Amino acid sequence: MTDSADALVIGAGPNGLVAANLLADAGWDVLVLEAEDEPGGAVRSGEYVAEGFVNDRFSSFYPLGAGSPVLRDLKLADHGLRWSHAPTALAHPLPDGRTVVLSRDADITAASLADFDRRDAAAWHELVAQWRELGPTLVQTLMAPFPPVRNGARLARKLGVHGALDFARFGLLSARSYGGERFHGDGGPLLIAGNAMHTDLGPEEAGSAVFGWLLAMLGQDVGFPVPVGGAGELTAALVRRLESRGGRIRCGARVDRVLVRDGRAVGVRASGSTVQARRAVLADVTAPSLYLHLLGSDLLPPRLRGDLRKFSWDDATVKVDWALSGPIPWRNREVVGAGTVHVGGDLDDLSGFAHELAVGRVPTEPFLLLGQMSTADPTRSPAGTESAWAYTHVPARPGGVAGWNDPDLRKRVLEGVERRMEEYAPGFRDLVMGRQISFPPDLEAMDANLTDGAINAGTSGLHQQLVLRPLPGLGRPETHIRGLYLASASAHPGGGVHGGPGANAARAALRARTTGRVFGAAARAMAGHSGGPR
């Protein structure tokens, strides 16, 4: 069977669906091919743990989504998406009983910081004022293809020469260094470092400050919202919007090859059938998957093959979903109303956790990112109960022959997670009605883009950002194959549910169709010489 469309999108994750929507808006006939039996990629939900409890299979809270100009412009509320907020966006409890909280009310956040040092209330208000001045332009700049000429110029004008240099320095700082410069007490550094650890960057790593600051400022601005009814409702809104514009989604269609003729992508092979692309192929898959599997080494220039060997993944992940018979019994009462909770001690504890990961050990004292989903969205479970989850980072390949297939290792990790919860919420285990634990191989089996349990399709380290993402010189979605675009989180601007990579890929495809040319500098950088394989 041979089918065709103007554009084929490989993968119905959020980036693939964003790309498909933008192409359909331009009048293109779009077909999305998804390997799994349902769309969504890492944005799915259902009653996986217990009847009546909605758990998110992968991602849950979406500050980047709520702050994304890409998703905002799609007007997904017109297609059924509703956001819900917990009373408090985020809380980070300490063993000594203190808690720092992040609220959409800047005065509440500032008062929390003042409990650690009264001078930090003013420091927080200063940061918020700066964000209100720079934030919208900065987010637009980060979401744009690299180099972000128009938005970058606008941001530079706002910053001025000295401000631009100071911001560049800030972009290189560690969360620990930045926290020490900005704040006097422990609360501010904990907010920055804890948010940075949503990536794979520890408190001492260069670049961790800007990631922690960005998430903290988004949390202050738009909160850490969740879709009412489950993460899958965000996917459902994207699907409904696409179908309203004539786009199609075919699930259970695993693409195993991108077809290339005379240096141009002309279609794909999916589940034994050929599907032709009249204009473009956009791949919402990881960079190694696109180049090494869907294209194959025979279509890769030597320089590109060499660069792919140096591609860095982010840390692997273990995720536990729970159905709880009641609210989590936190020692620190300020945590009760928080949607997102950082569980794992003070700044030194976070550094110790990051160090164990850096040397390839499964941390003995895990740092948990935890979600109280019914607190954020009461539709997630029966009244008086809680749908909750936690994830922690681990090495992709722990020591030992069996690796993550070792049942004793799996048991130790689960025990470590629930022991940590008992420390901060005595009686937690007594509330567990059901649980599901997903180890790195399980995550990859459910979504092939989560390679070895890596959730950001590549490290957030500075050596793989901007023009270096996914590989040196490739800060744009174009590839060395004409009409083929990388639309996944492996591309700039990277991980998180915000739609940036998908939008950039769609716009590149539209631009190439309009102008009749590709972004030559990026293509040449990939190939390592003028022109590419033909």
Question: Could you name the key traits of this structure?
Answer:
alpha/beta; 19% strand; single chain; 7-stranded mixed beta sheet; 534 residues; FAD/NAD(P)-binding domain
Would you spell out the secondary-structure blueprint of this structure?
Layout: E1 2-10, H1 14-25, E2 30-34, E3 45-46, E4 55-56, H2 63-67, H3 69-74, E5 83-84, E6 88-93, E7 99-102, H4 106-114, H5 120-143, H6 149-170, H7 175-182, H8 187-196, H9 208-222, E8 226-227, H10 232-244, E9 248-251, E10 255-261, E11 264-270, E12 273-283, H11 287-295, H12 302-308, E13 316-324, E14 338-343, H13 347-358, E15 368-372, H14 373-376, E16 386-394, H15 407-424, E17 432-438, H16 440-446, E18 484-486, H17 500-515, H18 520-527
Parallel strand pairs: 1-2, 1-12, 2-9, 6-14, 12-18
Antiparallel strand pairs: 3-4, 5-8, 6-7, 10-11, 11-12, 13-16, 13-17, 14-15, 15-16
Helix pairs in contact: 1-10, 1-17, 4-5, 5-6, 7-8, 7-9, 8-9
Q: How would you sum up this structure, described in words?
A:
The chain has 534 residues and is an alpha/beta fold. Among the domains are: 166 residues, FAD/NAD(P)-binding domain (3-Layer(bba) Sandwich), CATH 3.50.50; 118 residues, no CATH class. It is 38% helix and 19% strand. It has 18 helices and 18 strands. Strands 1, 2, 9, 10, 11, 12 and 18 form a 7-stranded mixed β-sheet that branches. The protein has a 7-stranded mixed β-sheet with strand order 7-6-14-15-16-13-17, sandwiched between helices. Strand 1, helix 1 and strand 2 form a beta-alpha-beta unit. Helix 1 packs parallel to helix 17 and helix 7 packs across helix 9. The radius of gyration is 23 Å and the shape is globular. The C terminus is likely disordered.
